[in-house]
Amino acid sequence: MYQGRGIRDPGQRNRLLGGKNEFDAGSRGLVESSILPDAALLDAYSQTVSGVAENARDSVVNIRVHHGHHPGQPAGPSEGSGSGFVITPDGYIVTNSHVVHDARDLQVTLANGETYAAWSIGDDPDSDLAVIRIDAPELQHIQFADSNQLRVGQIAVAIGSPLGFQQTVTAGVVSALGRTMRSHSGRMIENIVQTDAALNPGNSGGPLVNSHGQVIGVNTAMIPSAQGICFAIASNTAEFVAAWLIKDGRVRRAWLGIHGQSAPIHQRIARHLGLKQNQGVLVLNVESGSPSAKAGLREGDILISYNGHSLTGIDELQRQLAGPEIGSKSTVEIVRHSFRLELTITPTEAPV
Q1: Distance CA 65, CA 56 (A)
Q2: CA angle centred on 214, ends 44 and 223, rounded to 5°
Q3: Mean pLDDT (the chain, rounded)
Q4: Fewer CB atoms < 10 Å away: N or C end of the chain?
């Protein structure tokens, strides 16, 4: 006689050993209940991505660029391509500066296949952003989201024309926030969004969008030797720069008139002056007639603060020189030899 441990009901034994029985039905129910939520989530994710693509792709364009050759310069590629997205119904398009910089001719192809000649409205290499325009009626446009509200892990969808394949959609998440990246002009770009949505050459200038189909970033770079490490300029930066480019054709920035570099401060001098930092901005050259020259800055001075903000390198100084600083009296603190001095300086607008 079968003596099953822990089984007091013979009927229970039969149900366990039988083929199609109550326990099997219950177990299938448990399996199905454990699978259905994941399937539902996957289906919801797929519907979100496809919905975003459907709503946003009509605003995404392919940009063909023809470059002219300058006399005396080595010949480079005469043609290139990139992506962009329409931000107004009357044809203003945001893209990367490195896509359209020094372009001789621009052609924009819409999602429906129609092609238009485009012209440059403004180009800002310091932020790697540009605005171009086409003359086309009632264009589908896309809105900017507030990138300050982004959270790591949220859905991110990239749309563009990688390697010429128009209207390509890749999806991932926001991998990290607050990254920095150096532009082609050498200036540091702040608040870069890192994503694992796959980017390839030709994606540059296209939008990175959230689950509502709003732009959270402008796709700008990837690391060829890595997988899933891609970057986009935050939407708040893009919206700010685009507004200035549409208004004035350029972005106004403050200018001191010095050439400098990040440099260490000798430990003995830092201790003698009571400094909490061991680095500053070393002045290599002061341009004649510049705000720095008028303020009395000299070659060899080390800038340690600007308007009370500590300067541990050239990038921190560049952050402080925003448009509102133009014409505003500011205080700069320096180390000169073994002395700590404070000077008043009035930045002017940076020359174009």
Answers
A1: 23
A2: 90
A3: 85
A4: N
Can you give the pTM of this predicted structure?
0.76
DSSP code of residue 148? G
- Does the pLDDT value for residue 276 go beyond 70? yes
Res 77: pLDDT:
57
Which of 131, 151, 241 is CA-nearest to residue 193? 151
User: Which whole-number Å values give the CA distances from 49 to 44, 183, 254, in the listed order?
Assistant: 9, 30, 42
Count of C-beta atoms within a 10 Å radius of residue 139 = 19
- Token pair for residue 84? 């962009």
- Any idea where the domains of the chain sit in the sequence? 10-56, 57-134, 147-237, 254-349
Is domain 254-349 annotated with CATH 2.30.42.10?
yes
The residues that are catalytic are 98, 128, 204
Tokens, residue 341: 């001095």
**Model confidence at 2: pLDDT above 80:** no
User: Hey, do 57-134 and 147-237 end up sharing a CATH topology, with the first three levels equal?
Assistant: yes
φ, ψ for residue 146, nearest 5 deg: -85, 105
Return the CATH superfamily for domain 57-134. Answer: Trypsin-like serine proteases (2.40.10.10)
Task: Look at 78 and 253; give whichever has higher pLDDT.
Answer: 253
Tens of pLDDT, residues 38-75: 667 667 888 888 888 888 989 999 999 997 665 555 55
